[in-house]
Amino acid sequence: MADPGGGRPVTVSDVQQLVRRKDEIEAQIKACYELLEGQKGVGMHEPLVDAEGFPRSDIDLYQVRTARHNIICLQNDHKAVMKQVEEALHKLHAREKEKHARDEAEALAEAMSQSQSLPQAFAKVNSVSPGSPASVSGLQVDDEIVEFGSVNANNFQNLQNIATVVQHSEGRPLSVTVIRGGRRVHVGLTPKRWAGKGLLGCNIIPLQR
Prior knowledge:
By secondary structure, the protein is an alpha+beta fold. The protein is about 45% helix and about 15% strand. The longest helix has about 55 residues, at about 60-115.
């Protein structure tokens, strides 16, 4: 059996193999104790001589001595295997912890990279009416607007810029780009008359940068 304390990384298979070995040793120890029990219950420490100092004739002395010797050896093996199991589990847990930390660091680095590459938002959606053109397009509350038709962070001055674009685009699809959950999302929004007020059915507020 490969020693998990060697140079290669410990695997779950190594631990399972050690546990199987532990179970085998325990089964052998149990069998030896059952043999001793079958020999008048002599156990590990009962005397093997009678009151007069002669070898007992009511038990198989060879079997008893062999079983006792085997139990001592097996108990030592069991102790060693338990130590190996403990060390292997410790190494396995340490590696899993290290992998988890590495995964978290990579995810954080990716998130930071994405946030650095995201364009600047200039406004935010703070309400969307059900059944409105904004709702139908997929626009959501808390979406941060990066582009609204021809309006972007570079030329945005106030909400009138958006209102002008909306009025000139009635019935025509507008390309709207938002940041949602740290990702860029494109939405096709067509301003038009509907049951509610305005042509969009959403409320947009400027972002203070």
